[in-house]
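User: I'm preparing a small set of examples for a lab meeting where we compare how different chains pack in three dimensions. I only have the primary sequence for this one, and I'd like the structure in token form so I can line it up with the others. Please keep the answer compact; I'll paste it straight into my notes.
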Amino acid sequence: MANILAVDDDRDLCTLLKTALERDGHTVETRCTGADVTSSLCRWADCILLDVMMPGEDGFAVCRRIRAQTEAPILFLTARTDEPSVLTGLGIGADDYLVKPFRLAELRARVNAHLRRQNRAPQHRLVRGGVCFDLAAKSAAVGCTALPFTKSEYAICEFLALHAGQTFGKEQIYEAVFGYDGTADDTAITQHIKNIRAKLRTAGLVTPETVLKTVWGVGYLWNTADTNI
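Assistant: Understood. Below is the structure token output for the 229-residue chain.
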């Protein structure tokens, strides 16, 4: 079972989250302000649930501050459903988000899906489209340049690269990567793909769209070039 940190200025919601997740056997710590999220808590947590609209240091500011301190998946809990807010959250390193009010069953499913994905440990390397994947270390590189993917970005790339040449819709990608069969938000996958391409370009791939292709009206596919190692 996992260590989970829940941060929300609504104390009743914190209590509810703690009760629900402890039923799944997790150890849960709650905090009511962003300032209470310390480096030691970040190192302790296997998953972080983070409210966006908090007084003082809001969820976006907390995410920016702690993202370099932890590789744990960060899930935003937010009432802000406008696309710019969603894109901002995913762009600064969050892995997923839930829109308030949400069902506890969905929260538990999302958390457990991210934890399962975090614990996968493949044992070989793969090269596709000029990108080398170390599937054991869950890392990727272009030549000697490491790609600074978030866990979610890496997982999307790994899934598509392992099924190179096949086209997958956004909901299929979400379900395959996070293990949750539900109402995946198209905006989340779209923003992750945008971030992935930007990092591929920075690493030296001049046209990342030829590696991670858009099949209009259907979804995305990874170029089939290159082989296993």
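A couple of notes for your slides: The mean pLDDT is 86. Residues 125-222 form a domain with the Arc Repressor Mutant, subunit A fold (CATH 1.10.10.10).

User: Perfect, thanks.
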